C-alpha cells in the first residue's frame, strides 16, 4: 500500500532500486498502501562477521545502530528483545500501534476499511456459489498481478521496464482496485522501505515486531512522515495528471467496483469479489513485508533482512523471491533461477515479446558477482 511523489536528492534509481502499502499523507484521503535502496553510510570501522555462526548478526547491527537517536521517545515502544518464532530475527524495538497513542481520523479510516473487508469475509461460507468464486479468482489476478506486482511494484516503484502510457495507466488502475492506496502513496512508501530497509526509519521492519511489519504499521499514518519526512520521492508520478487524479479520487474506484459487482451478482459477488478477494490480496502483499524479512534464505549479500521465500512467491506472483529483489531492485525478474516461479516476470516477458514492454532491466553477471557472498563473510 503506498505513499510518495518527487525524486529525492539521493534518488532511489542509482542503477538499482525493490510489495507493500501506500504512504498516507497529511491532508489527503488515501487510506491504504504496501514495500530497499541501499543508503548505508554509518561511518563505522569495518568488521568481518561469519555467516556460518550467525547469519543475522550484521543485519541486526544495522537495525540497532543505523540512524542512531532517531525516534527516541516514540510512544508505545519497549526495549525488550526477543526472537520471532522459527527465526533468528530479533525484535529490537517492539512498537505498539493499537494502544497508548492518539489515533488520527486517517488512522481510524484505514483500520475501519481493513476491518470491514475482514468482516465481509465472514459471510463467504454462507454465500458461496461458483460464479462468485471465479469472479474473486479473476479479480485476484487482475488486481494482484497486473495491478500490484506488475504495475505498482515493478513498473512504477522501480521502473524495471517501460510500457506505452495507455497500458501503464490501465495496469495502474487495476492496482487502485486492490484497495491498497493510490499509486503515488503506494510507490512512495515502498521506495522509502528500500531506502531505509530494516533500519529505524524503515516504514515496516520486523525488527519492531512481526505484526507491525505485517499490518499494524498501516494504522499509524503519521509514522512515515516522522521517520522519513514529507514525501518527496515520487516526482515522476506527481507530474502526471492521471496519477494526481487517482490520488484525489482514490476511494471512488474500488467502491464503484463493489457497486457493480452487487448489481451483477448480488451479495455473493460482493462478498467474494470484494471481501474475500481484497483480504486475500492484502495478506499476500503484507507477507512480502513481514514473512520475506523473517523466514527463508539469503542468496545475496544485501545487508538487510530480506529473504527468498518460496510459498510467498507462489501466492504473490513471484514477489517472494525478495532477497533477489533487494539485491537487484531494478530487475524486472525476481525469480532469477529457472526453478523460481515468477508469474509477474512471465507476463513482462510476454509483453516484451510482442513489443509492448521495452527497456526491460535484468542484472548482469558482473552485478551478480558484486552482490554475491564472498567466502561466507560480509564486509560492513
TrEMBL record:
<keyword id="KW-0276">Fatty acid metabolism</keyword>
<keyword id="KW-0812">Transmembrane</keyword>
<comment type="similarity">
    <text>Belongs to the fatty acid desaturase type 1 family.</text>
</comment>
<dbReference type="GO" id="GO:0042761">
    <property type="term" value="P:very long-chain fatty acid biosynthetic process"/>
</dbReference>
<dbReference type="InterPro" id="IPR015876">
    <property type="entry name" value="Acyl-CoA_DS"/>
</dbReference>
<keyword id="KW-0443">Lipid metabolism</keyword>
<protein>
    <recommendedName>
        <fullName>Fatty acid desaturase domain-containing protein</fullName>
    </recommendedName>
</protein>
<keyword id="KW-0408">Iron</keyword>
<dbReference type="Pfam" id="PF00487">
    <property type="entry name" value="FA_desaturase"/>
</dbReference>
<comment type="pathway">
    <text>Lipid metabolism.</text>
</comment>
<dbReference type="GO" id="GO:0016717">
    <property type="term" value="F:oxidoreductase activity, acting on paired donors, with oxidation of a pair of donors resulting in the reduction of molecular oxygen to two molecules of water"/>
</dbReference>
<feature type="transmembrane region" description="Helical">
    <location>
        <begin position="132"/>
        <end position="152"/>
    </location>
</feature>
<keyword id="KW-0444">Lipid biosynthesis</keyword>
<feature type="domain" description="Fatty acid desaturase">
    <location>
        <begin position="130"/>
        <end position="349"/>
    </location>
</feature>
<keyword id="KW-0472">Membrane</keyword>
<keyword id="KW-0560">Oxidoreductase</keyword>
<keyword id="KW-1133">Transmembrane helix</keyword>
<feature type="transmembrane region" description="Helical">
    <location>
        <begin position="250"/>
        <end position="272"/>
    </location>
</feature>
<dbReference type="GO" id="GO:0005789">
    <property type="term" value="C:endoplasmic reticulum membrane"/>
</dbReference>
<dbReference type="InterPro" id="IPR005804">
    <property type="entry name" value="FA_desaturase_dom"/>
</dbReference>
<keyword id="KW-0275">Fatty acid biosynthesis</keyword>
<feature type="transmembrane region" description="Helical">
    <location>
        <begin position="103"/>
        <end position="126"/>
    </location>
</feature>
